Amino acid sequence: MAQLTRSLTLLCSIVLTLNLSLASAFVAPRSSCQSPRIRKEYGSLSTTEKKAYISAVKCLQSKPSKFPAGMVPGSKSRYDDFAAVHINQTTSIHLDGIFLGWHREFVWLWETALIQECGYTGAQPYWDWPKWAHNLSSSPLFDGSDTSLGGDGYYDGSFDYYVVGVKPDGSLDTVPRGTGGGCVKSGPFKDVMINLGPFEFTLVFTGLPSNWTAYNPHCLLRDLNQFCSERTNQTYVDAALATTTIADFQDALSSATSRLGVHGNGHFALGQSLQDFFASPQDPAFFLHHGQIDRLWYQWQKKDFQARTYGNNALNGTSTIFDPPTAPEVTFDTTMNWGILGGTKSLGDVMSPTACGYCYQYQ
């Protein structure tokens, strides 16, 4: 299977290179996807399906890390490996031109690990934000039941708000806190310890410290936050899908001008562990959150598939956070990597869920 995937990726790269060399409009690589994985909204899963997904996540938490001994002391499990790769690449894979493509592959690698390493027979579910935007605590994802991803945290009264930026006048831009803030108090991940971080956002300006790989076990934190959750409702999703340029779509997902965008508000809706800009994959909700982002990207692409997938409205930005003017613009040949999780691919390889070795769709 691994050899087949490598062969398909190589073939896709050759076809894409040929297509991009043509003066005419780009042509999408031929799809080899015959039996796609069907990704479903988490609430639509049966009790058996929810428990199977949770069991597979716990399986990755129990399997040893694949990092060479001593390289990343804080990565104790395969679950941690995903967080470590994300941490190490954070300033290259956010708020730039490879954010969407890099995370598409990241979720695919996670889903594949669940299947190949833990015997999971389903596909990666997603968190459809608008369904639960008005009441996170009663959603099947976060109600604290044994089929949820864990409920709220214990109440921590030591803070009143979260800082999300700085206003033009120099004052702090904040959002209100949620109803928890402490360790997850119910559900299958109640006793989970996460091993890397936490990291301050300001590290995006200074770089990670040399000891970022250190083992630092601490509990999974949750702070269900209705203020932020409301900003992922259908109105905001529709506004993102109504954008007509990739630049505006990216801005609707992650933007200071819209107070975090739907992507950022999803992270802040769950509290400190998912808010951690570097280490957020340590919250099991991360992969459902990014499944939704990938789903919206594909819905947006399909509105003008050729132009938005392989054409002149498909890419925008650089491969450096905040897209500094000195950084080169990304192209379909821009190379990305996922370290020990999955090697390298070009942006051209990750533009469609049904080509270049990918084979999935959303229900």
Automatic annotation (TrEMBL):
Gene3D superfamilies linked: Di-copper center containing domain from catechol oxidase
Cleavable signal peptide: 1-25
Record-annotated membrane-spanning stretches: none
Tagged with keyword Disulfide bond: no
Top-rank taxon, per record: Eukaryota
Keyword Signal assigned: yes
Domain Tyrosinase copper-binding: 94-111, 283-294
Keywords in alphabetical order: Metal-binding, Oxidoreductase, Signal
GO MF annotations, alphabetized: metal ion binding; oxidoreductase activity
Protein name: Tyrosinase copper-binding domain-containing protein
Organism (species): Cladophialophora psammophila CBS 110553
